[in-house]
Design brief:
Oligomer: single chain
Number of helices: 16
Largest sheet: 7 strands, mixed
Number of domains: 2
CATH class of the largest domain: Alpha Beta
Bound molecules: NADP nicotinamide-adenine-dinucleotide phosphate
Shape: globular
Amino acid sequence: MSNLGTEQNPLCAAIVGSGPSGFYATEALLRAEPMVLVDMYERLPSPFGLVRSGVAPDHPKLKQAISVYEQIAESPEFRFMGNVTVGRDVSVAELKECYHVIVFTCGAETDRQLGVPGEHLAGSHTATEFVGWYNGHPDYRDLTFDLSHETAVVIGQGNVAIDVCRLLAKTVDELKHSDIAQHALEVLANSRVRDIYMIGRRGAAQAKFTHQELRELGELADCEPVVDPDDLELNPASREELADRRNRANIKSYEVLQQFASRPPPTRGRRCHLHFLKSPVEFKGGGSLERVVLVKNRLEGEPSHQVACPTDEMEELACGVLFRSIGYRGVAMPGVPFDDRRGVFPNQDGRIVDGSGVVPGMYVAGWIKRGPTGIIGTNRADSVATVQSLLDDLPKLDANKKPGAERLEPLLAGRGVRVVSYADWQKIDAAEVRSGEARGKPREKFTRVAEMLAVLPEAV
Ligand code: NAP
């Protein structure tokens, strides 16, 4: 019988990606009966994925998940391998040689495309870019957003769209004690945006945002939500949807929208207009965005399966800056099968599959497994399910001893990669917290990899 998973021959696991699903997969592996060693690979020197660079800076409670990840990282069986890009600094084939199993938890790093003319005009941005920029993600540090326009448009009605609207709508005083990147705070401080339009392709009963996030739009210091009561009229199928208690989330959001619609028209400050049943069909402008052409939609289909269908009614909205917030999408990695249609790593119960079936030793969890849905906590059950598949497969795995990072660390050093350990990250973390203190912020993030590495001693 194989001794894999014992003190003499621990199961060596590589996790690729250090966001919530990576940490929950680590937690499930370390809690399992067999002896497991986990090495977590992350392309940035900083861990925590979207909890650090996706969660809005004014939502500190959501970031408390980090304290759970910090505890997991304290385990002696855990090693953080930061600043290492899998697929560039080390190949998936090399990981396979050094580990019994690899769990890919690399999230959904890019955006869905609208596929309409003018989508990429200057002034038309993805929500990912804006969110990464105000959260100090190094990839987006040098982007510029021209907020000298009075009208901003946000396409999509999910929670990311709400985050984008809220960050555009808040005053500097509402943001300055958060961990928002300073460069973003300075640009937002000079914003001339007065009217923000959040545009959804389906109706008020189908919007994807959650009522807690929606409600916040009605609690801002200098911005009022604007909803046209006519937009809340429902077709019979939507009425049926809202009569079904299983759609509690949509019912609650609809109630908040009704409250917004009953408010008197705002007389001061910014306005956040929520428009429904409209889709962009073209972005127009000579060199940069000037107008978005919208088609009015009607809903078709059975209750809970209604889709937006275009009518022949069009309208144009003048705007100089626009954010496309229509969902994220996973990115392919060399050496890993990819489902290009869905933007995920194809899998059965977390086991990666290719044309000929299950690929031994390769697993997936989180957004790159199921697509970009759910809240942070959703990833816990998802990662636990993948780890269960992995543990069920244990008897079938190659039981030869594997060297893990012991072999890869010198190899990476030879390639000029400064691997950032968890202790290194803690130094970076402490330096960020110190530099935030002066501004009354929980931290001032380093927004460039070189700045993070400068905190650390040279690698030996
Ligand atoms: P999402 O919830 O899937 O919302 C995407 C939005 O884009 C929907 O309104 C969708 O409309 C629309 N859309 C998609 N394709 C479109 C197209 N071709 N044309 C026009 N509109 C289109 O995605 P998300 O906002 O990126 O959020 C991702 C996940 O993160 C969600 O689970 C979200 O709840 C979560 N999140 C949570 C928080 C929080 O808890 N505070 C914050 C941020 C994100 P349809 O409904 O018609 O598809």
